[in-house]
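Design request, tokens follow.
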């Protein structure tokens, strides 16, 4: 049991396997997270439900056309960190991670981002996963189904979702 596991009293699922690659369970969680915020994924697979009480059991792996726009990256960051990413972080993502021609984050780049974070600061990854509705066994728990559905950026809801998430994170800060 790692030091991190001892702090929580339960064994957590592995984020990385023995070779240092993403574990299968963690990659499945990343597929769900990516699909939740990617409008291109949602348009391509409209019946797939990445969040909410009717979440699909398994989701298809995003393909090369599925990306996160800057607004989708900000919606994700608002859920995990309470606000949009600073421009410097966005620039680093475009420079060092896999993006498409327009600078949108691909699923491969998203996996790279979480591989780096998990290798360097697993506690930060677990904090993000908890914010996104995952338990220590990397199972998705839809306890925040209403919030999850309202934050998924689809078409015209993107800016409204970000505004709602900003408002919610502001309310949390006031508590």
């Amino acid at each position: 049991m790692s030091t991190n596991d001892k702090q929580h009293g339960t064994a957590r699922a592995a984020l990385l396997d023995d070779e240092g690659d993403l574990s299968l369970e963690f990659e499945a969680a990343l597929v769900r997270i990516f699909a939740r915020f990617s409008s291109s994924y949602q348009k391509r697979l409209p019946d797939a439900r990445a969040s909410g009480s009717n979440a699909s059991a398994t989701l298809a792996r995003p393909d090369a056309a599925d990306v996160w726009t800057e607004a989708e990256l900000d919606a994700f960051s608002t859920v995990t960190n309470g606000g949009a990413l600073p421009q410097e972080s966005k620039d680093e993502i475009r420079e060092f991670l896999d993006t498409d021609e327009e600078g949108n984050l691909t699923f491969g780049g998203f996996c790279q981002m979480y591989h780096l974070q998990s290798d360097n600061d697993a506690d930060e990854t677990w904090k993000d996963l908890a914010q996104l509705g995952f338990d220590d066994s990397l199972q998705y728990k839809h306890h925040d189904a209403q919030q999850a559905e309202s934050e998924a950026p689809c078409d015209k809801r993107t800016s409204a979702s970000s505004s709602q998430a900003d408002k919610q994170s502001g309310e949390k800060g006031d508590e």
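Comment from the thread starter after seeing the answer: thanks! The chain has one domain: 13-174.
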